Amino acid sequence: MKFNRLYIILGLVSGVSTSTISAKESAPKTTPVTQVMPSWNAAKSKAEILKFIENVSEEGGEHYVKPGDRIAVFDNDGTLWAEQPVYFQAMYTLDRVRKMAPQHPDWKDKEPFKSVLAGDDNKALAQGEPALIEMVKATHSGMTTEEFSASVRQWIHTAKHPTSGKLLKQMVYQPMLEVLEVLRNNDFKTYIVSGGGIDFMRVFTEEVYGIPPEQVIGSSIEVKFEMRAGVPVIVREPKIGFIDDKEGKPIGIHTHIGKRPIAAFGNSDGDLQMLQWTAAGKGPSLCVYVHHTDAEREWAYDRDSHIGKLDKGLDEAKAKGWTVIDMKAEWKTIFPEK
């Protein structure tokens, strides 16, 4: 890689902390390559990511892509922040069940609510996706979109991870924050494309990742327009509208963005179709899997995991030469220090 030219292409800002990404653009300055993505070791994945950025940013080059077409999409759970031992939105759902229980006395005799109220979250979640969906519909609906956002906002600023003790919004991957920063400093538009709830994520993605609400794609429940006390509101219905997972991800991208991405980042088989869709474009593409290999600093899981299973995707990545990030070997640090 011609790093003397890459200094200029990357256009990073010296001395700027990447522990919190700002959505605002900064004046470009050259940065030594040793300061680019500093939480990464000098490993294969980092080199492949930077080389791709160099290729598509070099005006007049063979692989040049005009800025308007530099679209990068990211899964959220397990790609930008942790997802073990349970998806964070599931934690919110369980907390909502407990908070709303006094208004629903029938829940004490009805699964999966019964198990949650008995203090056995694992038993409730062991009942599978249908049980989780039932709890989501019961706890995420009936309120206006503003009321739901306020609930999530209050929760996300206080909820802590059950094993690390960190605030959930601090369980983000520092090396991935640096990837987002490098891409945006090279005229990429970065999107989240996640199986998580779109309205749930939109509350915090700008603060945590520098990704504004309009660049978030996720699963959704149905909504309707109402007049309440003479005020127009949008009300959340207890019906699942769209699941942004697996084959739903390319559909969500097409519906919300209208362009095929040239870079896609995921961590599980649920992201496979998104990476396949990205790789099928006519021009250059970058497909990246975050492989959870660090049982000491985070978690180690892939083919047999009940959360973030990476099986078919791992095989396809090897067959097609996609980038696979080995967290244990390639990341100096996992979470931001502050």
From TrEMBL:
Signal peptide (UniProt feature, chain positions): 1-23
Name the domain of life: Bacteria
One Pfam family from the UniProt entry? HAD
Tell me which UniProt keywords the record has, alphabetically: Signal
Q: What is this protein called?
A: Haloacid dehalogenase
Q: Which source organism?
A: Rubritalea profundi
Lineage here is: Bacteria, Pseudomonadati, Verrucomicrobiota, Verrucomicrobiia, Verrucomicrobiales
